Structure formats: structure tokens, C-alpha cells
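Lab notes, practical 5.
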Amino acid sequence: MAFNVDLHTHSYFSGDGVSSPEDLITAARAKGLHGVAITDHNTCGAIPYLLEKGLMRSDGLPVDNFLVLPGVEVTTAEGHLLCIGASLPEAEKLKGRLAHEVCDLIHTCGGLAIPPHPYDLFRAGIRFATLETLPIDALEVFNAATTLRRYNTYAFKYAQVRGLPMTAASDAHHAAAVGTAYTIINCEELSLNAVLAQILKGNDLNQRYLTPRDSVRKTWNNWLRLRRKRPTSVT
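Output from the prediction step:
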């Protein structure tokens, strides 16, 4: 079966996200997605929040036919790195660590290491020289919010040359942008284990860019993020 999964989204647990995890899920369902990965910046705070709310299961199975994958986007010393499929202990303390060390930790915790928006000079994308040294599992070759579209082209060509599985994602920082781009996962069941296994085998990609309105909103959120308080506890 084909499942549409957005593998890179941000809630208000990120410093620059504005929507609640519940709103991300509601928007994703409305757009026909079957799952999302919550990948907030340097925090896994949304995961216990969603478990407490009953919108996510610790056994990796869907809730009402919708799967939330744990994750986090770590700001490594060389650029941003997604952990998909696992929570990282004390993720807040990983900022500034070497990308290779974070890759090793991701694998120890059972997740996949996937660099997002590589090459993007304006958004801490990991560069070619570093990518060559990393034991990554796949590459995000289409980011709906990339600064310049040619960065996606560079990422696609690099993944082809290296033989890496490819993913596409919205990089949504508000609910309206969820599902702009996503990865089409072809597997027998909708579960965390099945999705992670299939990502490694290769998948089809839905590639669509953010609208100008959504792009402006994302940029505005970035400017305001230092003034916004990040939720720290389950309510």
C-alpha cells in the first residue's frame, strides 16, 4: 500500500514553529496524509505531549489510522540533521555536536539519520565535504521551503551518485504548510517499523513548493522565534 508521510514538520515546541502538534495532525489528515514526523529543532518535547494526549502510541502503531513518527532536527556543528523514527535523550544538549557523533547517536537510538535541505547556504544545510564523511541513511532531496530551488537539484544529484534513498518533505512551521511535499511510502502496513524499513529501500516523492504566502509566513516566524517562549511541559 502507498502511504503519504511528511517526514519534516515543526510544532510550537520549535522556537520558530507556531502550530500545536494537534493542529499539525489535523491539517495533515485533512490533506490526505497518513502520517507525519514531528522534527522540532533540538527538542523532542512534542513526543511525550502527544503520547499523553493519546495522539501517538509508544509501540509505533497508528492512532485512528494516522501515524506520528518521533523525531528531531539537531543543529550540529556542520549543519542540520534529522533524526527520524526515534527520540534522542537530552536533545537540547546536542546542539553544536559533531554531525558524525549525532549520526552515531541516532543509530544507537534506532532512528534514521537524514540531512534536510543540504547545500542550502541560508538554512544550515550540511555541505558536500561533510556529507561525504557521514553514515547517513537517506537524503532529503526535496524541501518545499528551500531558499533556492537549485539546492534541491544539487541534493537530488548527490543522492543519485551516492545511491542514497531519497525523501521529500514540507519543512512546515505552521499547520497550513503541512503536506506541501511528502514521501510516498510503499509498504504493507502503516507502522513505525515498516515505514523506517521502506525509507531505506527508496520511495516516490510528491514535490511541491510552499506558496509565496507560506514562504513569507515562515520567514516572519524565523524573525520572531527569539521572542517566542517554547512550551516545556505537557498540559
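Observations recorded by the TA: The chain has a mean pLDDT of 92. The longest helix spans residues 149-162.
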